[in-house]
Specification:
Elements lengths: L1 E7 L13 H10 L3 E9 L9 H9 L2 E10 L2 E9 L2 E9 L13 E9 L2 E9 L4 H15 L6 E6 L4 H10 L3 E2 L16 E6 L1 E9 L8 E8 L1 H4 L1
Parallel strand pairs: 1-2, 7-8
Antiparallel strand pairs: 1-12, 2-4, 3-4, 5-6, 6-7, 8-10, 9-10, 11-12
Length: 232
């Protein structure tokens, strides 16, 4: 059994509006997860005080890490990150598609990696999709396609900016499963499900949300085990 989590950290911004990089490691440790997917992560930007948030969180938690830049920002970079309590290898940053209809839209990426943790070996992806549903749907299909080329079981986590009515059928049509039903945004009075744990060859045994000291989303925490079909 592996505990996993996905968490939009909003570059370590607190509810009071201050940016507190030192709270990020504390927040990640509170999750109690072996695999953590982070979105809206800054690396050495002015707004985050020149801090490499991924490296800081890895140092504070003792986990392995990788970062995938989506764009340059304020003298640094901005993107997604993956933290693993175990071995982290075969890393890849995938540029997700855009369309001419949304020319100039913020670039979105997925970070993929081969992970060994808690006695299990997984292919893991973390992503943050566009806020426009039509483009986010295209990007979701793209990241599922590239992740499935890696050895299973598969785990995709992130802020998809899409409701369950779109995500669940799209994922099931591709032969995957998606969590749904727990609202994660906004932080204090969540009324939207936009953060997901998506699996293939894994079964989600439990699911909960957590309010943490940084970020404007609730973290989504799940425990997963290899499914019966994956073991046969």
């Amino acid at each position: 059994m592996v505990t996993v989590a996905t968490f939009n950290i909003q570059h370590a911004r607190t509810e009071e509006g201050t940016v507190e990089p030192q709270l990020l490691g504390k927040a990640c440790a509170e999750l109690g997860a072996s695999v953590i997917a982070l979105q809206e992560v800054d690396r050495c930007t002015t707004r985050s005080g020149g801090t490499d948030l991924t490296a800081l969180a890895a140092e504070q938690t003792g986990m392995q890490s990788c970062f995938g830049a989506a764009m340059e920002m304020e003298g640094g970079e901005y993107g997604n990150a993956l933290l693993v309590d175990g071995d982290l290898g075969d890393r890849e940053v995938v540029i997700l598609p855009q369309t001419s209809r949304y020319e100039g839209a913020e670039q979105r990426v997925a970070v993929l990696a081969h992970v060994h943790t808690a006695g299990e070996t997984l292919s893991v992806g973390v992503t943050h999709l566009d806020f426009r549903p039509a483009l986010a749907e295209i990007q979701l299909a793209a990241v599922l396609d590239v992740l499935r080329r890696r050895p299973g079981p598969h785990l995709l986590m992130g802020d998809l900016n899409l409701p369950p009515s779109v995500v669940v059928p799209a994922v099931e049509d591709a032969g995957w499963s998606a969590t749904a039903g727990l609202n994660t945004f906004p932080l204090r009075h969540p009324d939207r499900t936009i953060d997901y744990v998506i699996t293939q060859g894994l079964t989600v045994e439990s699911l909960r949300t957590r309010i943490l000291p940084v970020g404007d989303h609730r973290a989504l925490v799940a425990t997963v085990t290899p499914s019966r079909t994956a073991l046969e």
